[in-house]
Write a structure and sequence with these properties.
The chain is of the alpha+beta class and about 700 residues long. It has a six-stranded antiparallel sheet with strand order 15-20-16-17-18-19. It has a four-stranded antiparallel sheet with strand order 8-9-11-10. A three-stranded antiparallel sheet has the order 3-6-7.
Amino acid sequence: MNENEINSWKEAFSSLPDKQFFNTVRLYLGEIKTPYNKQRLTEQLAGFIRKEENLTSILTLLDVFDVKVLTAISMIPNASQESLADFFHGETSVTEIYAEVINLTERLLIYKEKSQYSEKEYIKINPLLRENLIPYLDASLIFPNYKAEITSIEDVFTLSPNLLAAFITYIRIRGISCKSDGTIKKNDQKRLSEIFPGKEKLIQLLMNAFVNLSLVYEDEKETCYVIDISRLQKFSELPELQQYALLCAAAVSRFSKDGLKKEAQLLIDCLTSVPETGCTLETILRLAFLAGTYTEDGTTSVRKSRFSQILAAARQEAGAEPEQNAELLDRMIDCALEFGLLQKIGKTGDGVELYKSSNELLKVVSTPLINHSIPKVLNIDSTFTVTLMPGLTLRQLLPLTDFMLVKKSGVVTEFEITKQSVSEGFDHELSPDSIFERLESYSNYQIPQNLKINITEWYNSYSSATLYYGYILKVTDNNISFAENNPNIRKYIKEKLADGIYLLNLPAGTDISTFVEESSLDFMGNVKTSTTKSEFTSFPLLRPGRKPMVLETRSKTESKKTSIAEAGKILQALKASLKKLDMDKAQKESLEHRISSRLILSEAQLKNASIRTEILEADGMDFAGKVHLIEAAVKEEDMMEIRLPAADGKGEFFTLVGKPLSISRQPGEAVMRIQIEPTKDIENLLVSRITHLRRLRF
């Protein structure tokens, strides 16, 4: 046992509110004799836990759900009630988690410790019991081993460079218009659904990601989104899995650069952790949640430096970065399914659907693709339709499709070469020869002669008249040689329009005072403008995925199993002893509730018990009982489970959990003010509408 951890438990227990402290001590040690000392009582309670018969009873009375929650607490660094509720999201209700945490606390299996750097309370396993509990902790309860007995026959789809390139050519040639809420407008939706049949949701997610990654920007003149070529080229240089992880994270929310990196890395770690045999979506969400609790170097957040923890706590309280939560993970996993990063592989014998990660993508990130020869993946027919097979990276596809427009996306991708698409290529300084060279590099056949003729004619037409926009530099005859030979001027000359007249490669409207200074054109007055330059930052680099350390290092030895029969014997013996005691009915009912809640470990507790005869539940018709229960919960600062009818009046009910703050009586009614968990929202509820009420105490 670690003496420092034991001292931390003693300090945390001694620091409990007086009512909770003394109720717990009376429960296990009986009536408290005066004068008393909190530290001495805490030592006596530690001695009670260490007694072999009590320790045996504590362990024997564990059930499967206890072990499951304790295992989760051992896995999640700095576990809290909120993080446990998120971890078991979709399987176990918030009420069940909160009730279980309260029960395990009163059974002395866990305790809460306040953070040194914030007001948060973290849940720890009692160090007096940890060594004895470890053999019972069972990761398979949280991450079961599944086997697909029914294989899925659905087509397997994975996001590909070809699909991305096709989507990019559509935006580059046509642009995309979106509504104020980010959804693609109807006309574009219709065209895109014809090009990408059955992929409407995928295309909308890609559009969200392109906007949030600034791969597109809104052109005010065109009133639509257009491609940011420089950012897209940088993006295409990333490994394929990193591209898709960034797209997936950006598709579900807008993050800062650090936040984007964290979420994308989390997804890669999660995909790496999914077993080959597959698992359920709930299990994948837990893997993602667990991966999100570890730092960039793979260590737990507990091991971060003191300064890092203070900074992280301040950011969370200030709302600078979104905390990991179940809703965000849900959306990201759903997006990973849509992108094909996660794929359905079949069902178990019980009909549970199983999923696994895309093997191809994980192989790509671990062994980067190296092309020793250029793959021949391109074919051109007489109608100028280009059929493109898989095999090229996005980085290779961008220059190849720079003069094409997507026609159809499927197993193979079809593009077309039109006058409009080629004109876009000419705008990017492509010539007919450079287009022919790119096509020939990836094709086994010669380019159709009529295509060459058409592209050449289109270029002659395109270059017959040129419209310039930007800065023009005009110098006198005696300065022509100076301007053309000065390296600080020559590098900015885009085109020589005439003798002494040059189009500069500087965006119109930019501050060119630096150019004037570097070029020694001190005879010319500066162009004074006030502009804001957009600063381009590179995309975050991600490391290869890895499993959370706790899964890598967890022992593969079989865990001890809890025995329902042995626990039943203890409970039956205690209930039999209770019947023999000379007590009234209310006292016996109160003690029987404690036995069922596994708070009574021995007959000595029954004899010495400080009996607390309390009502813990009330139903809808018992208005006075509900009011009394709420008043008691406010006084004791207890959590409550509340059941209410839905506001739409359709006869459905919902359950919430929270801490009552106050109750105000009104003629024929009462209003409860409650803090809802885990959102911490404050709500006012009419007591008459509550159909069931329960105090979460044991």
